[in-house]
Design goal:
The structure is a single chain. 32% of the residues lie in helices and 22% in strands. The protein has 76 residues and is an alpha+beta fold. It has a domain of 46 residues. Strands 1-3-2 form a 3-stranded antiparallel beta sheet, with helices on one face. The protein is flat, with a radius of gyration of 13 Å.
């Protein structure tokens, strides 16, 4: 997710992520997985995901281990 700079730190990302988690739960999903960047630019995103209890994990799907990627998951 990327929030417009005009709306940074105003809860938009949290609102959207909470909605995604709620919908996944309603649909009976057991887990959410995501990929984001490892650079400092992506630190706010990683902090948001950890705030919502996402944990770091290995690559999934077609991804491969890469120093520029970070993988996270949330058990629902």
């Amino acid at each position: 997710m990327k929030t417009s700079p005009a709306f940074n730190r105003r809860g938009v990302g949290s609102y959207l992520l909470n909605h995604v988690i709620d919908v996944a739960d309603q649909r009976g999903y057991q887990q959410l997985k995501l990929e984001t960047g490892s650079l400092a630019y992506f630190e706010p995103a990683r902090k948001l995901y950890t705030k919502f209890d996402f944990v770091y994990c290995g690559p999934f799907g077609g991804y491969r281990e890469d120093p520029h990627n970070v993988f996270m998951l949330l058990d629902i």
